[in-house]
Amino acid sequence: MTYYDETEIVQRSDGITRRRLRLWLRRGWVVPQESPAGPRFDGADLARLRLICELKDEINLSDDAVAVVLSLIDQLHSVRHELRTLGQAIEAQPDDVRRAVQVAYRRLSAG
Amino acid sequence: MPDDPYSVLGVARDASDADIRKAYRELAKKLHPDLHPGDTAAEERFKAVSAAYHLLGDPERRARFDRGEIDASGAERSEQGFYRSYADTDGGGRYYTASGFEDLSDVSDIFAEMFGRRGRGGGRVDLRGQDVRYRLDVDFLDAVNGARRRITLPDGKDLDLTIPSGVDTGQVLRLRGKGAPGIGNAPAGDALVEIGVRPHSLFRRDGKDIILDLPITIDEAILGAKVEVPTIAGRVKMTVPKGASTGDVLRLRGRGLKDRNGRAGDQKVILRIEAPQQIDQELEDFMRSWRERHRYDPRAGMRAQS
């Protein structure tokens, strides 16, 4: 996996200044790994930083709104992750169990 | 050939730079893929909108496009990837949150067991121990009055169990933490003890009420009597009224089970007249002579209806 330090992050992204980066770290919007040489960012962190830039600069959200949106996005991805894992767990079951889950699910979602 | 960037953004060809920026922001709000994970149509449209804005948002590039020096494919978003492509794989795992699932535990323990372990910096697995089911048959009176029982588990351990008064067949007692041990820091599962109540030779149960069939003699039925009746809390005296019949129900108030609020049910005593085992001559003679002069018909009503 590729890692970036603070300088590389700032160089790689138009909207990210060193000041912004430190502020967002303090707020916990991005949580890079800690290393003796300072924070180490991976691809997910970089993509998240760019997302924050877009939310602020392109969609014009205030800082408060960015915090809300990030929290909702994190919750949404958690749910998607659990849903996918649950799907895989069901997928790994024998046929009759999978069918039983399907039937129960359809009955429940039909209300 | 990509669509005309002006129509992608929904602006006129002579729109000002500010209008173009405004139109782009509106669309970005609606379409940004990270605000719609899983919606591929939104992603396609967002890419087109981004490309159009890349072209028209920069006055110099816009001028070259208007002069026909570059075409609409002049720009596409670089291959940096959206955050969601990380978040949907394990790369974004540290940003997951467990806070969204707590309420789902009401729906099913399975959510608490599976999702409860999620947290920042996960990796170590904490998994609540499994619940272990047992079945325990108890005597009717123990179920009614409550009791303590010691049961021996398959692993050899003894478990002291308080059987609450009024427990009924099919009820499950949950003993927190007495099930299989948990994994990691998670707590042990629960022991679930399903109660079976053995039938009693005299008493039956109907909710809070106790039902008892009580045999009485002919003379007790005719003349009335004070008789001794078993209840779940020992014997009591009860008055059989004069002229009682089989099937009459007498109620001993407060002799049933107590509910959670301390209100007690009743014992219902169903009378059954039992003839003497030996019909002696005296009884026979008396009945014959009595019948001559006092014939009555308990089936008259029945005939009227059939």
Structure explained in plain terms:
The complex is a heterodimer of chains A (111) and B (306). Chain A is mainly alpha-helical and 111 residues long. In chain A, 69% of the residues lie in helices and 5% in strands. In chain A, a hairpin with a 2-residue loop joins strand 1 and strand 2 (38-40). The longest helix of chain A is centred in the C-terminal third of the chain and has 29 residues, at 63-91. Chain A is elongated and about 55 Å long. Chain B has a four-stranded mixed sheet. In chain B, helix 2 packs antiparallel against helix 3 (40-56). By secondary structure, chain B is an alpha+beta fold. Chain B folds into three domains: 5-87, Helix Hairpins, CATH 1.10.287; 132-197, Sandwich (HSP40/DNAj peptide-binding domain); 203-294, Urease metallochaperone UreE, N-terminal domain (HSP40/DNAj peptide-binding domain), CATH 2.60.260.20. Chain A binds chain B through residues 31, 42-44, 46-48, 50-51, 54-55, 58-60, 69, 71, 73-82, 84, 86, and chain B through 24-25, 28-29, 32, 34-35, 37-38, 80-88, 91-101, 114-115, 118, 120.
Strand portion of chain A, in percent? Answer: 5-15%
Classify the fold: give the CATH topology of the largest domain in chain A: Multidrug-efflux Transporter Regulator, Chain: A, Domain 2
Largest binding interface between chains: A-B, 28 and 33 residues
Poorly predicted runs of chain A are: none
| Number of extended strands of chain A | 2
The main sheet of chain A orders its strands as 1-2
Rg of chain A is 20 Å
Determine the fraction of residues in helical runs of chain B and give it as a percent range: 25-40%
The oligomeric state is heterodimer
| Architecture (CATH level 2) name of the largest domain in chain B | Sandwich
Q: What kind of sheet is the major sheet of chain A?
A: 2 strands, antiparallel
